[in-house]
Write a structure and sequence with these properties.
The protein has three domains: 114 residues, Orthogonal Bundle (Butyryl-Coa Dehydrogenase, subunit A, domain 1), CATH 1.10.540; 107 residues, Beta Barrel (Butyryl-CoA Dehydrogenase, subunit A, domain 2), CATH 2.40.110.10; 129 residues, Up-down Bundle (Butyryl-CoA Dehydrogenase, subunit A, domain 3), CATH 1.20.140. By secondary structure, the chain is an alpha+beta fold.
């Protein structure tokens, strides 16, 4: 396992969590091969998530009054880094823990907090994100799914696309239009919590190139929602979802999607004693890139810990992190194709095949590269 670089120090009380998490993961993941670990935050294991919840490792940053641990953003950074570095199957709880829980804690009603947050912290409530829609591309402000006031509640109609783990989730937090039209852009958007077991909700998984089913289409056919399905204030959905995306774009998952391949390749080099210039140059390039990205991610976490909403900084971290994640399978794959090199372990080959197939999606999820660079340019005053 690649050690976190010592040049970026975390608070000692949070760094102390690392040893305990590693010991747990060594025992829990002992028999998990590299190609299974390469799936990590796309890997769905509800029992594993509940085991984390039993140890108090879900909802680390949420208030104790709602089942959380009242720890800071750096504690969650350490936990997330160790989980992803080890290739743990975190897909079941990931979205609920990373962004749905903090969003509800920040904007939700007291009833919403008391109902959802303890369940998230126990690993009993899994969430998905309802943002993307057909025909909208990366233009999130053009969403057309609509929630209309009706008899003390809401009627929801529309469709969401590329919704990760929707077929295995209990709830969706959806960005919807509650007034106006798509031409109104950011005005009139709100967020609602949708119980995916309600009548009128249909979920269709999409099979990807690897044969897995992570992404889904979700259809809402006049779904009846209670009045308290609304999160925060009506019409404030854009500002809320922007804050939510800062959680999604800044964490270790925007660095470590390919880390198992890199880790296993380095182990292969050590085992075969490959020390030629090409391999040394590649390893040095990737590790230098990784160290810089980690420092950036830690810096964004520091802003989150201060209560800021580092939207532009998170977008920059995500954009550069995606570049690194896609570079790893490309460079490693080229070197492993050397006919004069010792044959790599089968598990490394399978892990590389999986990550290579998934790598194009890294620059789509959480915001496309073009959208992120537009945001960065705007933040720098370049447009």
């Amino acid at each position: 396992m690649i050690e976190p670089l010592a040049c970026v120090a975390l608070p000692p009380e949070d760094e102390a969590l690392r040893a305990e998490v590693r010991a747990f993961l060594r025992e829990r993941l002992r028999a998990l091969p590299a190609d299974a670990r390469a799936r990590s935050w796309m890997g769905f294991d509800a029992d594993f998530s509940r085991a984390l919840g039993a140890r108090g490792w879900l909802g680390l940053t949420l208030p104790k009054a709602y089942g959380g641990s009242d720890r800071g953003a750096f504690a969650r950074f350490v936990l997330a880094e160790e989980l992803l570095n080890a290739g743990a199957p975190v897909g079941a709880h990931w979205i609920a823990d990373r962004q749905s829980g903090p969003l509800i804690a920040r904007y939700g009603s007291e009833r919403q907090k008391r109902f959802y947050l303890p369940r998230i912290c126990r690993g009993e409530a899994f969430f998905c994100i309802g943002m993307s829609e057909p025909g909208s591309g990366s233009d999130l402000a053009s969403v057309r799914t609509r929630a209309t006031r009706a008899d003390g509640g809401w009627t929801l109609s529309g469709q969401k696309l590329w919704t990760t783990q929707a077929h295995r989730s209990h709830y969706m937090i959806a960005l919807v239009r509650t007034s106006g039209t798509s031409e109104d852009r950011h005005r009139g958007l709100s967020q609602v919590i949708v119980d995916l077991s309600l009548p009128g909700v249909s979920v269709r998984p999409i099979e990807d190139l690897s044969g897995d089913q992570h992404f889904c289409e979700v259809f809402f056919d006049d779904v009846r929602l209670d009045d308290d399905a609304l999160i925060g204030s009506e019409g404030e959905g854009w500002s809320q979802v922007t804050a939510e995306l800062a959680f999604e774009r800044s964490g270790p998952e925007r660095i470590y999607s390919s880390i198992v391949v890199l880790d296993e390749w380095l182990l292969h080099l050590r085992a075969t004693r490959r020390h030629d210039a090409r391999h040394a140059h590649c390893a040095g390039r990737l590790l230098a890139h990784l160290g810089t990205l980690r420092a950036m991610s830690v810096a964004v976490t520091a802003q989150l810990a201060r209560g800021a909403s580092p939207v532009i900084e998170a977008a920059l971290t995500k954009d550069l992190g995606t570049e690194f994640e896609q570079l790893v399978p490309t460079l490693v794959g080229d070197l492993l194709n050397d006919p004069d090199a010792p044959p790599p372990p089968a598990a490394l080959v399978r892990a590389l095949a999986y990550v290579t197939g998934m790598a194009p999606s890294f620059s789509l999820r959480g915001g496309t590269r073009e959208i992120l660079r537009g945001m960065i340019a705007l933040g720098l005053g370049l447009r």
